[in-house]
Amino acid sequence: MPTEVLMPALSPTMEKGNLAKWLKKEGDQVRSGDVIAEIETDKATMEVEAIDEGTLGKILVPEGTQDVTVNTPIAVILAEGEDASAVSAPSPQAAESAPPVAAAPLEPSPVAASAPATPAVVNSAVAAPPQPETVPEPDVPEGTEFVSQTMREALRDAMAEEMRRDGDVFVMGEEVAEYQGAYKITQGLLQEFGARRVIDTPITEHGFAGVGVGAAMAGLKPIVEFMTFNFAMQAIDQIINSAAKTLYMSGGQITCSIVFRGPNGAAARVAAQHSQDYTSWYSHIPGLKVVAPYTAADAKGLLKSAIRDPNPIIFLENEILYGHSSPVPKLDDFTVPIGKAKIARPGKDVTLVAWSIGMNYALKAAEELSKLGIEAEVIDLRTIRPMDVETIVASVKKTGRCVTVEEGWHQSGVGSEIVAQLMEKAFDYLDAPVLRVTGKDVPMPYAANLEKLALPSVQDVIDAARAVTYR
Amino acid sequence: MVAAANKSAVGRAPTAKAPARAAAKSPARRSDKMAAVPEFTKAEELEAYRRMLEIRRFEEKAGQLYGMGLIGGFCHLYIGQEAVVVGMQAALKQGDQVITGYRDHGHMLACGMDPKGVMAELTGRRGGYSKGKGGSMHMFSTEKGFFGGHGIVGAQVSLGTGLAFANHYRDNGSVTLAYFGDGAANQGQVYESFNMAELWKLPVVYIIENNKYAMGTAVNRASAQTDFSKRGSSFNIPGEQVDGMDVRAVKAAGERAVEFARSGKGPYILEMLTYRYRGHSMSDPAKYRSKEEVQKMRTEHDPIEQVRNRLLEKKWATEEELKAIDAELRDQMNAAADFASADPEPDPSELYTDILR
After folding, report:
1. Min CA distance, B117 vs chain A (Å)?
2. Residue B25 CB contacts under 8 Å (≥ 6 apart), including other chains
3. Could you tell me which chain B residue has the CA closest to the CA of A238?
4. Which of A174, A354, B29, B243 places its Cα 20 to 30 Å from the Cα of A406?
């Protein structure tokens, strides 16, 4: 039986990659461990090793192919006596735009990992997002050209543009310079701006957060990257006690213009200590602004606004969204105001409020609900603090019903705050209790099935929306 | 003591683990490696006398106001340690910065901040440096290069390293003094900051004010290495112990350290061997040390008395002249206290200002 070599994943969240180069050709003898090809994503490059001994019988995906879906067979290795002609070439999956089957755990039943061959099937926690809405950005002039960018590229461009604009802006964090960013968000910045402004720090979150805050108190504008916000718990004293409170405690004398950014919340299969959503933690604190974008355009426009803002900003990204592409306006200086929510999908029957990756669930649910005759209005909150309560209340006055969606836990979650705001400001307009769809009240488990159960699902959102609309 | 016993049990020589009272018997602990103390000129002695006495009279007045209920919350007095900030300030230039922890009144006065504004902040009035919203531990003056006033033990070390980072980034030739105590010296972020400061050669002088007690815990009960000048050794940061009760020794060491940092060689550590006469805060009766220990320090090592005695011995000043300086300072502190008592509280609208810029 010929052995299939599958397109490997560089990370649990990778869905596609490019086949950069074949290092062996058809007919070559290979042994287990031989490097046979190189694959790359926008994040990294990796060598593919032969997994068995034999002859490289057939190359199924030629070098230079872009967007090869993870787990696609890329070659076959033949044992002695086997024939390449026995191998039927699979239908090419390269450059497909549909989300890979292996990465669709939002469906009610788990997708079994059927391929026995190595590498292991990767179940991404969340599928590729629905096509971004075409509702134009209110801040974008009509007729503006849009280019498709990943959130990763959009974030990098935002930093680069602001660093070109203002010499006081610099970026510091673990692996941001020579390594080009642990998640490649700072790719190319060292080359353009040099080591003075793109600074690799030791692995000392508490210390370098404090150094960043001190530099901001002296008038610089640091962008402090946390490899993930899980590690920022080491630094939370400096973020809250020093960055957020000093303007007040100094009677307005000491400003702290600083951006703390990095991926927040669950990625995929990294268990409890690496999968926590801190949105509600930071949103509790006066003196901070908390931003959590969903689209690439918002990521770019909001990060540029955050860097210019004279206050400390918590900029919560999401690892799973980094590789997702959406249209970004091609403007010299595109910014999105902090504190403004956006109607991502208009509707009349129920309001869904989400942000960051929660939008994935909300938009998919809205599509399904539409088939049931329920038109959901989806609000992308974008900024969690200060919260655009006005936009939520205006929508709920129209729909009379509301469901909040977040991956964080329910107790004292952001959804709880939205519920309270609606009780105070829209009680007379509500036709049903407001429901919260949240992560389950457990530490994040590692096992794939349990992890999926711990996260909210599209079905959860649909169920909640049907419950509040009594349909 | 358990740790010490264990160490003895495995045959290691017990390090200085004597009980607290015995350890503090020779408080200035002048060691052989301390540099010789250079003499001050008459003008320097008079200036040091005035600056140190200003702090002492301020703190005494603050203690009084606290007792009268005009100052609330925490209030940590600096009495006994005056030579440290006055000597160090004499080593600074315009543009240099100072940052410290919660025992900060002396640092602010040394930086040239107005006693009225500091006292009014202690009483929580609108004329205080933070408009009454910060209190004793949280005051700032960017004009005077004073960056707080921080209530979280050790936080100012990372923040001060960040101020030095900004100087380095701007290549402006300025140096940051980051003060902290023997208690803060055991915080993890201090060493994270040491590492980055040396790695990036930041212009910062770390001043460890070793007053022998972290709140009520004697240094030998909390610190495995009680020679704090060595605390930077694993990062290759040079350090020295300084007689922090002798303003001349402090100034000389300060000049060496500041010059080192300013010339681009990176951070420097000064351990100031000093002593606070009062408790940790106003509510601390300081039962963890003997009256005799405190009295011995006051009579044999008082930083102000030392200067006073030299001025009189050298006939650089008469008793009357020194009394006149004292009277002037007492008047000034009375005026500060009057201001701080009469100044109105912040307008209620201030509740919602200065949260975001």
Report:
1. 12
2. B293, B296
3. B155
4. A174
> Structural domain boundaries of chain A?
3-103, 146-329, 342-469
* Token digits of residue A278: 């801190």
CA distance readout (Å), A336 to A158, A329, B276 = 11, 11, 54
B208, B181 Cβ separation under 8 angstroms: yes
Q: Which residues, in sequence order, are bridge partners of residue A69? A: A16
User: Hey, are the CB atoms on A250 and B354 less than 8 Å from each other?
Assistant: yes
What integer is the mean pLDDT of B237-241? 98
Q: Is residue A239 a contact partner of residue A260, using CB atoms and an 8 Å limit?
A: yes
In this structure, is residue B249 part of a structural domain? yes
Locate A292 and state its tokens. 């959590």
Q: Do B188 and A206 touch (CB under 8 A)?
A: yes
| CB contact at 8 A, A260 and A252 | no
Min CA distance, B185 vs chain A (Å)? 14
The pLDDT value recorded for residue A138 is 63
List, for residues B84-117, the tens digit of each pLDDT value: 999 999 999 999 999 999 999 999 999 999 999 9
Q: Is B100 on the interface with A (CB under 8 A)?
A: no
Identity at A42, one-letter amino acid code:
D
Q: Is B81 on the interface with A (CB under 8 A)?
A: no
What ipTM goes with this model? 0.90
CA–CA distance, B315 with B311 (Å, rounded to integer): 6
Helix (H, G, I), strand (E, B) or coil at A38: strand
Chain A residue closest in CA terms to B350: A251
Domain holding B266: CATH number?
3.40.50.970
Q: Which residues of A have a catalytic role annotated? A: 205, 274
Q: Provide the terminal-to-terminal Cα distance of chain A, rounded to the nearest Å.
A: 53
CATH topology of domain A3-103: OB fold (Dihydrolipoamide Acetyltransferase, E2P) (2.40.50)
CATH superfamily, domain A146-329, is Thiamin diphosphate (ThDP)-binding fold, Pyr/PP domains (3.40.50.970)
CA distances from B107 to A331, A358, A380, B159 (A): 50, 50, 49, 16
Distance CA A4, CA A117 (A): 7
Question: Which stretch of A130-134, A293-297, B299-303 has the lowest confidence by average pLDDT?
Answer: A130-134
Give alpha helix (H) positions in A117-204.
Answer: 151-165, 189-193
Query: Does the distance separating the beta carbons of A310 and B188 come in below 8 Å?
Result: no
In a domain, B15, yes or no: no
Task: Measure in Å the smallest separation between the Cα of A204 and chain B Cα atoms.
Answer: 6
Cα dihedral A20, A23, A28, A34, rounded to 10, equals -110
* Least confidently predicted of A6-10, A154-158, A224-228: A6-10
Round to whole Å and give the CA distance between A273 and A79. Answer: 43
Q: State the pLDDT confidence band at B22, using cuts at 50, 70 and 90.
A: very low
Across the interface, do B138 and A249 touch by the CB < 8 Å criterion? yes
Contact B136, B71 (CB under 8 A): yes
Would you tell me how many other CB atoms lie within 10 Å of the CB of residue B238? 17
CATH number assigned to the domain covering A342-469: 3.40.50.920
| Domain annotation covers residue B357 | no
Which helix H or strand E contains A437, and what residues bound it? strand A435-437
Same topology for domains A3-103 and A342-469, yes or no?
no
The type of residue at A345 is: R
Question: Mutating which of A168, A199, A253 best tests the B interface, going by the most B Cβ atoms within 10 A?
Answer: A253
A354 min Cα distance to partner chain B (Å): 25
Give the number of domains in chain B.
1
Q: Which residues of chain A make contact with B354, given a CB cutoff of 8 A?
A: 247-248, 250-252
Contacts of A167 in chain B (CB under 8 A): none
Check CB contact under 8 Å for B134 and A208.
no
> What is the pLDDT averaged over residues B122-151?
97
Burial class (CB in 10 A: 0-12, 13-18, 19+), A21: middle
Residue indicated by tokens 């901040």: B113
Q: Do A311 and B141 touch (CB under 8 A)?
A: no
